[in-house]
Amino acid sequence: MTTSIKKFFPLATIAFLLSLSLTTAFRSTQAQEGSRPDAKISNGADSGEINDQGWLRKYKLYTPSSYNPNRPMPLVLVFHGSDGTGATIADVTRFNNLAEQKGFIVVYPDGIDHNWYLRGNSSGKVDDVSFVTALIDHLKQVRNIDRHRIYATGFSKGAILAQDLACELPDQIAAFASVAGSLPVRLQPKCQPKTPVSMLMINGTNDLAVHYEGDDKSQRGALISIPDAVKVWQALDQCPSPAQVQQLPASNPRSRFKVKVSHYSGCRSGSEVTLMAVANGGHLWPGGASQDASVNKFNADLGFNASQTIWDFFQRHSLP
């Protein structure tokens, strides 16, 4: 049974954690995505295309059965990791099921060459920040989207894109969630959003791809540490210190893995910043679908689900 943190903390269901041994055996959701190129999208899904910056961009779109074209509905953008696709991250995160239950539209864009290109470093490729703006405008034409309740999340490189979008598009996107990602070193000085940013970060302390303590700043594509990324958002949102901290018990009391939740509330204009540090966790979407029996058992033992947690976080926020 999934454990809820409501009785521990005002955020709803919290993220699961992943052991280092599982990380070694099953390095990342990127690899998980890449091994499942034919992942199927459930009923209510459509495939779409949009021309942007000279590129034909594809996406998967899930519209719940409760959708009424006369009523605006929230939109969640979900960005895959490197080597993934919109279809594979849809399969891993199972946001379609949640969208059907909770009543929101979810879109899974495909990155060019299974990758994302951030503003100012496109190297001749498309600017994916501009692409996201174009995609949102396009979806508003084909669905009745609630412009006050558009959200963005992603895994790994998709999470890095979500962090960049938080810097660039907080006037269009109401809240952000980053799973196994951080803020690039080169973007930190440029990240000066004019409006507050509500950010949820879920990171494993033993992530071998996105290091919890950050990278050598001279390294190409270096990321700042997870604690430093949280400080960036805390400072930008003018959140008071210290954080409210809770350590959540695992579903299996014998487990040596814990989730430490650091939450900053009382921030500017009702924004909030939360870090869910998964002790000994690796590079994976917590609670996601997997073909690996040991990963599924681990998920069941812990009872945490990142997708549910992210939606619970999102639904507390809207643009004015």
Descriptive tags:
single chain, 320 residues, alpha/beta, Rossmann fold, ten-stranded mixed beta sheet, 10 strands, 27% helix, 21% strand, globular, disordered N terminus
Brief characterization of the structure:
With 320 residues, the chain is of the alpha/beta class. The protein contains nine helices and ten strands.
Would you spell out the secondary-structure blueprint of this structure?
Elements: H1 20-25, H2 29-34, E1 45-52, E2 55-62, E3 73-79, H3 86-93, H4 95-102, E4 105-109, H5 128-142, E5 145-155, H6 157-168, E6 175-179, E7 199-204, H7 226-236, E8 244-248, E9 259-264, E10 273-278, H8 293-302, H9 306-314
Shape assignment = globular
Distance between the termini: 37 Å
Q: Output the helix-strand order.
A: HHEEEHHEHEHEEHEEEHH
Class by alpha and beta content: alpha/beta
What proportion strand?
15-25%
What is the helix tally? Answer: 9
Strands of the widest sheet, in order across it, are 1-2-4-3-5-6-7-10-9-8
CATH class: Alpha Beta
Give the count of structural domains: 1
CATH structural architecture:
3-Layer(aba) Sandwich
Number of strands: 10
Helix content: 25-40%
Question: What is the CATH superfamily label?
Answer: Alpha/Beta hydrolase fold, catalytic domain
Largest beta-sheet details: 10 strands, mixed
Query: Which fold does the CATH topology refer to?
Result: Rossmann fold
| Poorly predicted parts | 1-43
Q: What is the typical, i.e. mean, pLDDT?
A: 84
Radius of gyration: 18 Å
